[in-house]
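Quick one, probably user error.
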């Protein structure tokens, strides 16, 4: 009985070892697929723009996993061991999911900043128009006022472009456009004010 029990234990241990080895010899398709899908979600979330450092880290982790998988695929079949590749794909997926969360947070922050800048640019245009209506401009300063009026019309058109960027979720472009409008309005107002001062107003 003891001999039979010992043989059974030994047989069970051997079977378990063979199962482990067999699992290590199989490519980690499930882990690889999940890691690749997580990275695709990461890219779709705009992580390259809104979480560039985590994005690059996740990209590097996935690249390492793919390299290990390719390395094992190149080996003679009996010597292949995909355990490390499987673990690397798990780590790559975790990195991608964490980076996606950072990207989503960064995207929300960028949207808030861009919308506030767009509102500020619109207010700057409106305030400049109000200033133009009441500002004392002499005959020699009319050209500056005309330039301001033309510039404000252009700024108004550019505001629509900014709003279109916001609708499209292009927050960096919207922010840059809104800031440029504010700078241009300030420059135009400064030119009108300088002209008025020269004429003693």
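Nope, works fine. Designed sequence:
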């Amino acid at each position: 009985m003891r001999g039979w029990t010992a043989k059974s234990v030994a047989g069970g241990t051997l079977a378990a070892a063979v199962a482990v080895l067999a699992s290590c010899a199989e490519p980690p398709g499930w882990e690889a697929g999940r890691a690749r899908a997580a990275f695709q979600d990461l890219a779709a979330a705009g992580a390259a723009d809104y979480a560039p450092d985590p994005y690059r880290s996740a990209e590097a982790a996935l690249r390492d996993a793919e390299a290990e998988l390719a390395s094992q695929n190149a080996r003679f079949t009996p010597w292949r061991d995909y355990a490390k590749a499987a673990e690397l794909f798990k780590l790559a997926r975790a990195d991608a999911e964490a980076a996606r969360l950072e990207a989503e947070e960064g995207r929300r922050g960028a949207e808030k900043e861009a919308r506030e800048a767009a509102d500020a640019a619109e207010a700057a245009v409106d305030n400049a128009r109000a200033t133009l209506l009441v500002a004392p401009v002499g005959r020699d300063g009319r050209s500056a006022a005309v330039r301001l009026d033309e510039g404000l019309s252009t700024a108004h058109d550019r505001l629509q472009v900014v709003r279109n960027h916001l609708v499209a979720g292009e927050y960096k472009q919207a922010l840059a456009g809104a800031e440029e409008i504010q700078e241009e309005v300030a420059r135009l107002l400064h030119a009108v004010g300088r002209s008025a001062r020269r004429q003693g107003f």
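Residues 83-134 form the longest helix (52 residues).
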